[in-house]
Amino acid sequence: MHELSLLENVRSILEAHALSENFQIVENITLEIGALSCVELDALTFAFESVMKDSLAEHAELTFKIIEGQGRCVQCSQLTPMSELYDVCVHCGHFRVEILSGLEMKITELKVR
Questions:
Q1: Measured between alpha carbons, how far is 95 from 86 in angstroms, rounded to an integer?
Q2: What is the CATH number of the domain that holds 80?
Q3: With contact defined as beta carbons under 8 Å apart, do 50 and 17 qualify?
Q4: What does the pLDDT read at residue 5?
Q5: What is the pTM of this model?
């Protein structure tokens, strides 16, 4: 389950920012997660409490913003929605699509004190 290591990285980022931005408690964390990122939201939610235990985010609420997958077809150059990593172009059916969005995972909002 790579969600554990992702959350450990989030915790490390929070700890580093707490030092530089001078806060002690994180109340809310919003993560932007791409629909194509292969991150399981249920697993992330399940692991959140144990990874954040005894940290500045121990009682934080975790929220998500999902970024839809989008690509550009190499054949016809049209933008195409993507629900899977290897989707074909909805316009021409070509299977070489360059992914433009949907792979990201980043912290976009924090509520701290």
A1: 7
A2: 3.30.2320.80
A3: no
A4: 94
A5: 0.86
Q: What is the mean pLDDT of residues 84-113?
A: 96
Q: CB of 81 within 8 A of CB of 68?
A: yes
User: How many structural domains comprise the chain?
Assistant: 1
Domain with 82 in it: 2-112
Nearest CA-CA partner of 51 in 1, 7, 110: 7
Structure confidence by residue, pLDDT tens digits, 32-43: 999 999 999 999
What pLDDT, on a 0 to 100 scale, did the predictor assign at position 93? Answer: 97
What string of DSSP letters covers 38-86? Answer: ---HHHHHHHHHHHHTTSTTTT-EEEEEEEPEEEEETTT--EEEESSTT
Q: For the chain, give percent helix, strand, coil, nearest 5.
A: 25, 35, 40
At residue 83's C-alpha, the angle toward residues 70 and 13, to 5°, is 70
